[in-house]
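User: Let's play a game. I give you a shape written as tokens, and you guess the letters that built it. Ready? Here's round one.
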């Protein structure tokens, strides 16, 4: 377990990860650091710890043009690491209008001319938590359609960020709008994916946030769902995929977010082991078996054959 310079919080009663587990973190943001100053080890130290503890491959997700450059440069210096090209819904909502068009131009030029560099398009999607007004959500829908078409044109896997609104994040001036429903973002995403005839087997719902009833439905259709390390200490994350077959599950940290049991952006990629424990617990199977199967799932979805490090036995 990585040590951080943060106050201690009580641990849940679940077992600790067994030593020697193989694992892949399919979604983090290394080397980006959203944590308080000096709360985390350096990005290089985080990568080294990941490998030393049994990590076979690490995938970092960009969210905009700036983060793409930082992640791409870092990944180029680390053998067992790849990256995805994202245009996150938060980017759509919060980027100042005077720089949005310029950054979009740079991003689209890179992804369409260097498809061999990256593993997938994502994270992309809808975030109805951060975008509270209907107009802002409609803007996210518009941009999602654009990026989705790019992913399809490039024949790349798709990594989704889908966050529904809760009762405190609805547009009070448009209370009856369908975007305000507890599953409003899910509904729109699925409608668009169907409209574009997207193959569910090429789509991963990163850090799947439910509602839980969607887990069995999505997996039955062939979608992949990624379980964050926070599922170890926060039951809602584990509950969302309790009824999902192992063949549809992947493991991630979303680091530096989604710490196994502490609040705040203080997570590291090596903590993906806690996602393995959480899934093993809900599905009542040995950690070793779960680890091997989720590793193979990651290899299959991201086409990582001949890229991953050989597991130490």
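Assistant: Ready! My guess for every position:
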């Amino acid at each position: 377990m990585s040590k951080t310079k943060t106050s201690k919080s009580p641990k849940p009663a679940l077992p600790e990860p067994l030593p020697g587990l193989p694992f892949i973190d399919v979604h983090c943001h290394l080397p980006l650091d959203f944590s308080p100053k000096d709360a985390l080890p350096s990005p290089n130290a985080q990568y080294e710890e990941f490998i030393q503890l049994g990590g076979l491959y690490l995938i970092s997700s960009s969210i905009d043009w700036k983060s793409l450059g930082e992640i791409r440069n870092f990944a180029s210096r680390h053998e067992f690491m790849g990256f995805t090209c994202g245009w996150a819904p938060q980017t759509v909502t919060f980027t100042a209008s005077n720089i949005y068009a310029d950054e979009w131009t740079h991003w689209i030029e890179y992804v369409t001319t260097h498809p061999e560099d990256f593993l997938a398009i994502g994270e992309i999607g809808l975030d109805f938590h951060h975008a509270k007004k209907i107009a802002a959500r409609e803007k996210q829908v518009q941009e999602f359609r654009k990026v989705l078409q790019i992913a399809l044109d490039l024949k790349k896997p798709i990594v989704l960020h889908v966050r529904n609104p809760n009762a405190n994040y609805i547009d009070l001036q448009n209370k009856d709008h369908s975007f305000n429903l507890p599953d409003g973002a899910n509904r729109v995403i699925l409608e668009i994916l169907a409209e574009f005839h997207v193959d569910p087997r090429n789509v991963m719902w990163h850090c799947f946030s439910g509602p839980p009833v969607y887990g069995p439905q999505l997996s039955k259709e062939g979608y992949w769902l990624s379980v964050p390390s926070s599922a170890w200490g926060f039951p809602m994350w584990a509950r969302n995929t309790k009824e999902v077959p192992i063949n549809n599950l992947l493991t991630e940290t979303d680091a530096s977010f989604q710490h196994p049991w502490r609040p705040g952006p203080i997570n590291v990629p090596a903590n993906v082991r806690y996602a393995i424990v959480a899934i093993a617990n809900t599905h009542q199977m040995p950690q070793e078996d779960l680890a091997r199967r989720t590793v193979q799932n990651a290899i299959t979805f991201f086409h990582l054959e001949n890229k991953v490090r050989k597991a130490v036995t």
